[in-house]
Amino acid sequence: MKIDGKPYRSVWVDEDGWSVRIFDQTKLPWQLDILRLTGLAEVAQAIRSMQVRGAPLIGAVAAYGVALALRADPSTEGLERAVAVLGETRPTAINLRWALDRMRARLHNLPPTERVAAAYAEALAIADDDAETCRRIGQHGLPLLREIAAKKGQVKVLTHCNAGWLATVDYGTALSPIYQAHDEGIPVEVWVDETRPRNQGAALTAFELGKHGVKHAVIADNAGGHLMQHGEVDIVIVGTDRVTRTGDVANKIGTYLKALAAKDNGVPFWVALPHSTIDWRVADGVAEIPIEERAAAEVTELTGRTADGRIETIRVAAEGSPAANPAFDVTPARLVTGLITERGRCEASETGLRALYPEAG
Ligand SMILES: CSC[C@@H](O)[C@@H](O)C(=O)COP(=O)(O)O
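Above: inputs. Below: predicted complex with MRU.
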């Protein structure tokens, strides 16, 4: 993706050849700060604090975290410790475990002297794979937008949270078809759910779409149902942090309510995902997917930029009131029109997913 004409990925190795660069997503859209990560503790903290976030990107950054950890300690104990520390940073997105399992499988049987170089190579392969996967997701989602635009002359999409290039290594998942539609001249407009409590929609998705020149408007999270009732939404496309083998979808809190409203209004509700987001071991998403509970302060406070350019956090809830902050919810497969993957589109079901991934265990 390009920012002010300059091509970027969301994670890359610095010119020094070993340290790892990311955008500090807690500062966007107000400041474009690029962080330099140099060790295991820094990577774990960047993931925990959501300086990097978004399921596929968390996986790729964690893979580089293993490489950085091995520079300090290439022993088998060092490898296992890195995998354990990184694996505990965030519980819901399965891409984190997928990437760490892949790193361990590649590195475990190597002699320690060969591990560092192999870890960087594997992390790069994961990042390259994610970028290409997301490009293909866009190709498979694009016909849905093309079809609507052919009938209506334009297409209005609603999306929740940030499933754009900032949440992946490049292109994004839910936003990838939108970028590709825009690039081929389809008049596409996006309703961007602000996505409280952390406002990934208002801050990150709006930033991305603005930089790409895609027409969009930020809406309060509660506005989607009203817009659907009035024919203002042609299609909902969201990303996901974990999809069960039966097609249940965990995504940012509030996604389930959008799916309910979409069902009631006959609006197609599509979910875009890479292969690394499928959890083949889980069948019942509501019962089995761990939902991250984050700090109450994310709900009781808001962060933004003041008129004179300072980034400030203020309290918006009544003094002394506690808050609950479940960060994800699960949308049952029955509410999902279909899944958009790098291998094509399918029904949100075990049959649909297995037809696309016959090799899955
Ligand atoms: C392609 S990203 C899909 C999801 O990871 C995204 O929509 C989301 O819910 C991210 O949650 P976050 O808590 O910001 O990491």
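The chain has a mean pLDDT of 98.
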